[in-house]
Write a structure and sequence with these properties.
Elements lengths: L22 H13 L6 H13 L1 H8 L2 H5 L35 H8 L1
Helix pairs in contact: 1-2, 1-3, 2-3
């Protein structure tokens, strides 16, 4: 299954578009997560609380934890994670929102052209 030439690291890319239909509930949940983080310094806590009450995307970012996605997977250790969230204009019927657009490898494109 694994050879010396094969990397043991795998990059998993996930893109989600979420519809927020209760921003207040989301902000309250994020505030709860912040309140439960005893390692967060007081100054950072004040900034975080302000951010999640003013920006729905920030509230969501405080609630998403990539570690939770792989915590129960056998034989997997999370080596690095980063994530962000932003408010967007979304039209599911627009060709700009084709979720498969990143599935094409640059090498595949070059081979198809050449």
């Amino acid at each position: 299954m694994s050879t010396p030439e094969t990397s043991q690291f795998v990059r998993l890319r996930v893109e989600l578009v979420l519809e927020i239909d209760d921003a207040d509930a989301l902000a309250q949940a994020a505030l709860g997560r912040i309140a439960g983080d005893s390692d967060m310094p007081a100054e950072e806590r004040v900034h975080a609380e302000s951010a999640v009450t003013e920006d729905t995307a920030e509230a969501l970012a405080y609630l998403v934890d990539p570690f939770d996605l792989v915590r129960e997977m056998p034989g997997v250790d999370l080596a690095q994670a980063s994530w962000s969230s932003e408010q967007i204009d979304y039209d599911p019927d627009s060709p700009d929102w084709d979720l498969d657009e990143d599935d094409v490898d640059e090498n595949d494109e070059e081979e198809a052209v050449g």
